[in-house]
Design brief:
By secondary structure, the protein is of the alpha/beta class. Helices cover about 55% and strands about 10% of the residues.
Length: about 180
């Protein structure tokens, strides 16, 4: 079974990659993250994934298109649902690519984060899969969150401090002020 693993960054890919291989999947990574801002953050995350690709022999398909405007247009009228719109952008693109490239299933590294809405990711993944004609694979990868962080630290791979969008970066700094 071939599976396309949407990757938001290297550290979040470590544990899902391990689990998927244990389940017998042939895994290919997929980079598509129009939400990541600023551009230097985007590049750091993509370069981290490129490094991981070489270290663990993970083939990756890169859709290297910094589509910040597309992301912002999608979320600006409904900031309360910005995460939902962001998941939709990335999961529908992953499903489309997985179908086009002949994969059996697709999934995402977003499922390793304790900060993401797993129920919503699963709903959107299922919907994307149905619309694109490919199965979405859900597993709660959160138990391996720190394994990925530790791996990234040991291998000196870039480790981000926020989910990626300009709004989460803002929230991170506002939270520090309150604390």
């Amino acid at each position: 079974m071939r599976i396309l693993l949407h990757c938001c960054c290297a550290q979040c890919a470590v544990f899902p990659l391990k689990r998927l291989k244990e389940k017998g999947f042939e895994v290919t990574g997929f980079w598509y993250n129009p939400n990541v801002h600023p551009f230097t953050e985007y590049r750091n995350r993509m370069e981290g994934l490129s490094y991981l690709e070489r270290v663990v022999d993970l083939p990756v398909i890169y859709e290297d298109s910094y589509e910040l405007e597309k992301y912002l247009k999608r979320v600006m009228d409904d900031l309360d649902k910005r995460c939902e719109h962001c998941y939709q952008l990335r999961l529908f693109r992953a499903a489309e690519r997985a179908k086009k490239e002949g994969f059996d299933r697709f999934t995402t590294t977003l499922l390793v984060s304790p900060y993401q809405d797993h129920s919503l990711i699963n709903q959107i993944g299922e919907r994307a899969g149905k619309e694109m004609g490919i199965e979405f694979f859900y597993e709660d990868f959160r138990p391996g969150f720190y394994e990925g962080k530790n791996f990234a630290k040991e291998h000196n791979i870039y480790r981000q401090k926020y989910c990626g969008c300009v709004f989460s970066e803002r929230d991170r700094y506002q939270k520090k002020k309150k604390d």
